[in-house]
Amino acid sequence: MGAGHAHRLYRHGHTPVHALPPHTKLAAAFAFVVVVVSTPREAMWAFGLYAVLLGLVAYHARVPAGFLLKRLLIEVPFVAFAVLMPFVAEGERMDVLGLSLSVNGLWGAWNVLAKGTLGVAASVLLAATTELRELLLGLQRLKLPPLLVQIASFMIRYGDVITDEMRRMRIARESRGFEARGVRHWGVLAKSAGALFIRSYERGERVHLAMVSRGYAGSMPVIDEVTATRAQWSYALTLPLTALVVCLLGWTL
């Protein structure tokens, strides 16, 4: 985990949010999501306040609204599921614009949309202000099982390696005049997928042998020791603690 690794969700900046140690941001984001999920769905005003809190984080991190909204498109499948809930759920029904909708289904759809959107937004902000390498160091600092951290590290790196290999194979096919236009070309694509699997497997073996020859014995060396001061923890936990106050008000009001 010593080499840098950029990702598309990350937005380079020099803000107080970017400067926070990664494990403090991971803990804050996780605690915020737990609080949001624990909020009663009937407290609709609470979810509006949560959105305001995330907006303040985005403002201090200098993450534009367009950047955030574009990344929120990843939850479209969940939105489609939520839209169907009022039509298929059972229980008391009500008429809305001539449509018979389930009351429980409407509440369920709202619950999925509100909590899902806030959770995805918090994750996007975390990724936008923290590099992947720092996220892995943060997970390591939070005492996540080392094997899981290594698996995540290898997945990130070899995901890009395989993607780049696919790009080169596509360019090679196109340079020879190949263009997939129908079912009759599926055979060529299947052979390409098989070749990609073999190349990836062979590369994995070569990398493993190289690691073993350099002394790898099941654990990666810790190159950077990430620490956080009490002030940094306080700054990072401002979001989940404020959200917790809102959640408690949502249960009592």
From TrEMBL:
Membrane topology listed for this record: Multi-pass membrane protein
Swiss-Prot/TrEMBL keywords: Cell membrane, Membrane, Transmembrane, Transmembrane helix
Lineage: Bacteria, Bacillati, Actinomycetota, Actinomycetes, Kitasatosporales
Pfam family, one: CbiQ
Top-level taxon in the UniProt lineage: Bacteria
One GO BP annotation of this record: cobalt ion transport
A GO CC term attached to the entry: ATP-binding cassette (ABC) transporter complex
Presence of the UniProt keyword Zinc-finger in the record: no
Stretches that traverse the bilayer: 43-60, 72-89, 109-130, 233-251
Coiled coil: none
Protein name per Swiss-Prot or TrEMBL: Cobalt ECF transporter T component CbiQ
